[in-house]
Amino acid sequence: ATPLSIMVGTGKGARAGILIRSAQALETAHRLDTVVLDKTGTVTAGRPALTDINTTGSLSEEELLALVAAAEANSEHPLAAAVVAGARARGVAPAAAADFESVTGKGVRATVTGRRVLVGTSRLLTEAAVPIDGLSPIAADLANRGRTPILVAVDGRPAGVLGVADTIKEDSAAAIAALHRLGIQVVMLTGDNARTAAAVATQVGIPRVLAEVLPEHKADEIRRLQGEGRRVGMVGDGINDAPALAAADVGLAIGTGTDIAIEAADITLISGSLAGVVTAVRLSRATMRNIR
Ligand code: ADP
Ligand code: MG
């Protein structure tokens, strides 16, 4: 493309709330045939709220919540913030935690008032040899409704399942339909569990889901799609997404996301709406049409 057409395209983008970092990004976006969307904070608002408390052992709901909130108080994960806020809203004060340990993509471990508390995915509990047969049906039911189940073990025994819900951004479904009309395949990529991801994907019309992908493997999934001969755009908001954004042919960061994601991306969508992805592709197509 000529420098002038790039300048015009970049200027139009800026006025539409789309910051394009390089001429190359504007030139490449028109060739994308696949767009990969992170779930939390990208398709959804990324402000999860605590909605369910199920106890399966001898603890009361308040006791369970106090232990979990204490373990989560040290975590920077959005799910942890939802649990801590949910406990506070219910008047439950978290106890003091020691030996806090975060397990990336899986959850947290801590000692709370002398008890070993394990909070996170079914994988986290299974790897610690906690039997989860009693928790799994509760978790599956939550996940089928699009909520993220948080499994809890206390002193090596199953103790309960919390549910956290995130709302879908109101324009996500329309943007995904518009991408399909542009001939682009849409894929969801998330660390969240497969059932939750599938429920959310169904609600917004995404036909293909890659779930339970650990943070360090997100970029591998992008490279695998590229290995199928695809030109891949990746849209994400989190620290977890940065390597995948960098690996994609075009990385698009949600402007309300973390700085690390924005730095790794080629394009920033200021408003955070997925409509910006559609606008970016259209802008690139128009720019490349004008100059060839
Ligand atoms: P995402 O791709 O949705 O941002 P992550 O890779 O950060 O997900 O985490 C994957 C999954 O691990 C979460 O959906 C959740 O089930 C579990 N998890 C991670 N951190 C925590 C935590 N602090 N508390 C509870 N669960 C967690
Ligand atoms: Mg995210």
From TrEMBL:
Claim: Calcium is one of the keywords in the record: no
Where in the cell is the protein located? Cell membrane
The protein's topology relative to the membrane is: Multi-pass membrane protein
The answer to whether UniProt assigns keyword ATP-binding to this entry is yes
Q: Which UniProt keywords apply?
A: ATP-binding, Cell membrane, Membrane, Metal-binding, Nucleotide-binding, Translocase, Transmembrane, Transmembrane helix
Q: What's this protein's family per the entry?
A: Belongs to the cation transport ATPase (P-type) (TC 3.A.3) family. Type IB subfamily.
* This protein's name: Heavy metal translocating P-type ATPase
Species assigned in the record:
Micromonospora thermarum
Residues of the whole record sequence present: 115 to 406 of 558
